[in-house]
From TrEMBL, chain A:
Naturally occurring in which organism (per UniProt): Jiella sonneratiae
PROSITE patterns for the chain: ABC_TRANSPORTER_1 (PS00211), ABC_TRANSPORTER_2 (PS50893)
Pfam families in the record: ABC_tran
UniProt family annotation: Belongs to the ABC transporter superfamily.
Keywords: ATP-binding, Cell membrane, Membrane, Nucleotide-binding, Repeat, Sugar transport, Translocase, Transport
Protein name: ATP-binding cassette domain-containing protein
Gene Ontology terms for molecular function: ATP binding
From TrEMBL, chain B:
Coiled coil location: none
Pfam families: BPD_transp_2
Protein's job: Part of the binding-protein-dependent transport system for D-xylose. Probably responsible for the translocation of the substrate across the membrane.
Principal cellular location given in the protein's record: membrane
Ranges that cross the membrane: 34-55, 61-82, 89-107, 113-136, 143-162, 190-208, 229-247, 253-270, 300-321, 341-368, 380-400
The protein's name in its UniProt record: Xylose transport system permease protein XylH
Subcellular location: Cell membrane
NCBIfam families: GguB
Taxonomic source organism: Jiella sonneratiae
Membrane topology: Multi-pass membrane protein
Keywords linked to the UniProt accession: Cell inner membrane, Cell membrane, Membrane, Sugar transport, Transmembrane, Transmembrane helix, Transport
Length: 510, 405
């Protein structure tokens, strides 16, 4: 096999941070090359160097693609050569349709006039390829994150691609979709397209990767030949974190008390199509010291449920009651919900979780400014102490707490969101996909935080599309499908098969 | 900084030249803030030379302050509006309208000017609040609402004045803009009270500067290198002392200067140290995330506009008092000067970024250029062109800086 890509001695620094330190990477033609490493190890940065996001001259080192040295001055250059990158943070235009997004900058047109017939036909083909059943005219904003990801991939396929780079493509996909995506990569491989896959889901990596390169703190620490699942997850983890990790989930001895949090007959309607019930007569509760999970497929309505409860942040025509400690509480605004002791950490950190251009230090206390002020005047020293405390406790990797959040790696941004809600000191914490994009080591830390919170008598609700995670950290599980709760069971009696069959059976009923 | 950085792997290692590197990266981070201060100094030096020293003469300094007071007052409110992610195009018209209202009440109805002033401020706040209501609660773009407001209040001031100029104002009212601090010590040709006040301000500024630096060091905040800290404070102190001395040898501090200085201090404090200031920045940075943090974003935007209206009214009073009449033309195009000052001062169109000090410096840059070019007798045509280019250059500098980082 020929070498398609050779990166040598890549060094990239940001003010105060060495993101990449003399990294070399070699990708063979027609292979799936996995890039793994902890949050902030430099994976995304390396790919941005490769794809010209950081232009030639802003880094040191040499890139050779198909035998030629490349000096990309922008992403358009690398695309011309057939290097297509799908970024960790999606980059679609929300108000444009799927078709318009896919062919943006690459329109099917003659003499400047768009051929809509061909555009839609090609889009349909591409959507079929990635397994997305949506009309090409659907606006992207009306799609969930998972489906948006598929649109991104379809967009990449619309170009002439020789090397496809996927930065955590499956982090917001459910298992079936992830499976389909990986299958897609294998098909590309058969067709001779190489790909570089970044992921924190190590089971996927060991399943499909031919070669694995492990980055740690900006250096490539090892390259493993993984052909056909030769490398175990444990091996990868050892190289990633520099030690072996025996348990994926911290041990817990749940001490479950009385019911704290109850949602009764909760119903919410779609904001645009107000006759459509997105959450349909849902009731659930959580007890002190308990970790409750809500399982379901993408689009089941879990996020919508949580957000509508959290100060009516989603939906219209909402009915139902929320009780805390046996008394109904007012959750009609976010402020009141927080005051009642309910907090919600979003799954969409970029749009709903963070003020991206602001510093870590100023993001963390935003939901609880009274915690760093006397109500009016902010005590900056307290603010700093708080930021440092969380930085230590959940190991936010940054050059200083004055670093802007936008410059953090994806996983570390997620940690800032968590820190923000931990600092708000909730009694009930609803976590929506809390470990999305987070590395194995940090996942363990987050699970430990969940366990600690539960041990201190709080109630935790975890929404997650990763079933092993739900099975690993929760005490009790609800299963949600198409806006309704279709099952409830103690986690001890649950299994992935059982959850899936509940979902499928409920789907058949209507 | 160094303490925090040390236990992080992958962070540039401290070594020889650390101090140089630290101040290097500090400059890079704060290039904008120092850049604009430097620009003001350079522009002043330039005009000082080409006007043969007229620019900094006591009488011209006094003029400069009086001429720009209303722009600065409005820039304080505009900064908050822009930081929250909006814009207010109506301030010039509101200024004119309030001036007209004051003239009608005081001159034609013989109302007590203090009462009239209070009513005017309230009217301004209500005007701002009404515009803010549509913007905040109905999500109507501020550009449109305030564009409408601009037309409406331009029309209303014409109507109130019936197309005529109304004046003059009673002596007491004029003193708002043309009065000076009383000379309580009675030294001929030197207003000692002003001098003492100026020195006191310098002392207070230095004291708080030192105190916060001391505290920051103790807690390991990333702090500016000593040379910058002392350099900046030295320049500031020297400037205040010089201006104070110059003004004292003329007629002392204008009343407006005292009002302005107080307002600058208050708004600076609000934006940098208080929770409400923090929230306004957060709203501009990411409205959705801020709302999901339990912050009432609508009310914040509403208040920001109400506040802007009140400051525009205050500026209207100052302006009317200075001209000693209210004319239908008052305030024409002022919104552009105010907005330009805020952007020159480093605020971002997208919201979430900007400082009070920057906006004030921005206003002074515009003011010095206006004043300097007028002294030189440069025509209004060239003046406009030059001011436009300065605005463009400042913003290009911003964007260039951001892309490079
Ligand atoms: N524009 C920037 N300015 C300053 N530091 C940056 C910038 N971009 C990235 N970094 C830093 O570079 C390091 C590597 O970041 P990168 O995004 O490559 O990590 P990653 O391996 O992709 O992590 P994750 O798995 O969390 O996505 C991090 O420490 C990050 O804070
Ligand atoms: Mg990344």
């Amino acid at each position: 096999m020929a070498t398609i890509l050779e990166m040598q001695g890549i060094t990239k620094t940001f003010p105060g941070v060495v993101a990449l330190d003399n990294v070399s990477l070699r990708v063979e033609e027609g292979e799936i090359h996995a890039l793994v490493g902890e949050n902030g190890a430099g994976k995304s940065t390396l790919m941005k160097v490769l794809s010209g996001v950081y232009p030639h001259g802003s880094y040191d080192g040499v890139i050779e693609f198909r035998g030629e040295e490349c000096r990309f001055s922008g992403i358009a250059d690398s695309e011309k050569r057939g290097i297509i990158i799908i970024h960790q943070e999606l980059a679609l235009v929300p108000l444009l349709s799927i078709a318009e997004n896919i062919f943006l900058g690459n329109e099917r047109a003659s003499g400047g006039v768009i051929d809509w017939h061909e555009t839609f036909a090609r889009t349909r083909e591409l959507l079929a390829k990635v397994g997305l059943r949506e009309s090409p005219q659907t606006r992207v904003t009306d799609l969930g994150l998972g489906k948006q990801q598929l649109v991104e991939i379809a967009k990449a396929l619309s170009k002439e691609v020789k090397l496809l780079i996927l930065d955590e493509p499956t982090s917001s996909l459910n298992e079936t979709d992830s499976e389909a995506l990986l299958q897609l990569l294998l098909e590309f491989k058969a067709a001779g397209i190489s790909s570089i896959l970044i992921s924190h889901k190590l089971n996927e990596i060991s399943k499909v990767a031919d070669t694995i390169t492990v980055l740690r703190d900006g250096s490539a620490v090892s390259t493993l030949d993984a052909d056909g699942g030769k490398v175990s997850e444990a091996d990868i983890i050892r190289d990633m974190v520099g030690r072996s990790l025996n348990d994926r989930y911290p041990p817990r001895a749940p001490k479950i008390g009385g019911t704290i949090f109850e949602v009764k007959n909760w119903t919410a309607h779609h904001p645009q199509h107000s006759d459509r019930k997105v959450v349909d007569d849902v009731s659930f509760h959580a007890r002190a010291g308990e970790v409750v999970g809500i399982a379901g497929l993408m689009g089941a309505g879990r996020t919508e449920l949580a957000m509508s409860v959290f100060g009516r942040s989603y939906g219209v025509d909402i009915s139902g009651e929320v009780w805390m400690h046996g008394k109904p509480v007012d959750v009609s605004t976010v402020h009141r919900a927080i005051a009642a002791g309910i907090c919600y950490a979003t799954e969409d950190r970029k749009s709903y979780g963070l003020v991206l251009d602001d510093t870590i230090r100023r993001n963390i206390p935003l939901a609880h400014l009274s915690g760093i002020s006397n109500g009016i005047v902010i005590d900056e020293n307290r603010e700093l102490a708080v930021a440092r405390d969380y930085r230590e406790r959940i190991r936010i990797k940054c050059s200083s707490t004055a670093q802007e959040v936008v410059n953090l790696s994806g996983g570390n941004q997620q940690k800032v969101v968590l820190a923000k809600w931990l600092f708000a000191g909730p009694e009930v914490l609803i976590l929506d996909e809390p470990t999305r994009g987070i590395d194995v080591g940090a996942k363990y830390e987050i699970y430990s935080i969940i366990a600690e919170l539960a041990a201190s008598g709080k109630a935790i609700v975890v929404i997650s599309s990763e079933m092993p995670e739900l099975l690993g950290v929760t005490d009790r599980l609800y299963v949600m499908n198409e806006g309704r709760f279709v099952g409830e069971m103690p986690t001890a009696e649950a299994s992935q098969e059982k959850i899936m069959s509940l979902i499928i059976r409920s789907g058949h009923r209507n | 900084m160094s303490q925090e950085a040390l236990h992080q792997p992958g962070v540039a290692k401290p070594g020889i030249g650390q101090a140089a590197a630290a101040s290097g990266s500090f400059i890079r981070k704060h290039l904008r803030e120092y850049g604009i201060l430097l620009a003001l100094i350079v522009i002043m030096a330039f005009f000082q030379i080409v006007t043969n020293g007229i620019l900094l003469k006591p009488i011209n300094l006094t003029n400069l302050i009086l001429q720009n007071s209303y722009v600065i007052i409005m820039a304080l409110g505009m900064l908050l509006v822009i930081v929250s992610g909006h814009i207010d195009l109506s301030v010039g018209s509101v200024l004119g309208f309030v001036g007209a209202l004051a003239a009608v009440m005081i001159v034609q109805w013989d109302m007590n000017y203090i009462l009239a002033g209070v009513i005017c401020l309230a009217v301004g706040a209500v005007i701002g609040a009404i515009q803010g209501y549509w913007i905040a609660y109905w999500k109507i773009p501020s550009f449109i609402v305030t564009l409408a407001g601009m037309l409406v209040f331009k029309g209303l001031s014409l109507w109130v004045l019936a197309g005529q100029s109304v004046g003059p104002f009673p002596r007491g009212f004029q003193l708002i803009a043309s009065g000076f601090l009383p000379d309580v010590f009675g030294i001929k040709g030197f207003n000692l009270l002003s001098m003492l006040l100026g020195v006191a301000v310098v002392a207070v500024v230095l004291f708080f500067g030192m105190r916060s630096r001391f505290r920051n060091r103790a807690s390991g905040h990333d702090d500016e290198p000593a040379i910058f800290f002392f350099g900046r404070n030295f320049i500031l102190a020297a400037a205040i002392v010089y201006i104070t001395w110059a003004l004292s040898t003329f007629r002392g501090f204008p009343n407006v200067l005292v009002v302005m200085a107080l307002l600058i201090a208050v708004y600076s404090f609000i934006t940098t140290r208080t929770t409400i200031g923090r929230r306004i920045y957060a709203v501009g940075g990411n409205e959705k995330a801020t709302r999901l943090s339990g912050i009432n974003t609508e009310r914040l935007v509403f208040l920001t506009f109400a506040n802007m209206g009140m400051l525009a009214a205050l500026a209207g009073l100052v302006f009317a008092a200075r001209l000693n009449t209210a004319t239908p033309k008052a305030g024409l195009g002022f919104e552009l000067d105010v907005i330009a000052a805020v952007f020159i001062g480093g605020a971002s169109m997208a919201g979430g970024v900007g400082t009070i000090v920057g906006a004030v410096i921005g206003a002074f840059i515009m003011g010095v250029m206006n004043n300097g070019m007028s002294i030189l007798g440069i025509g209004i045509d060239y003046q406009q062109v030059i001011k436009g280019l300065v605005l463009l250059v400042a913003v290009i500098f911003d964007v260039y800086n951001k892309n490079r980082a």
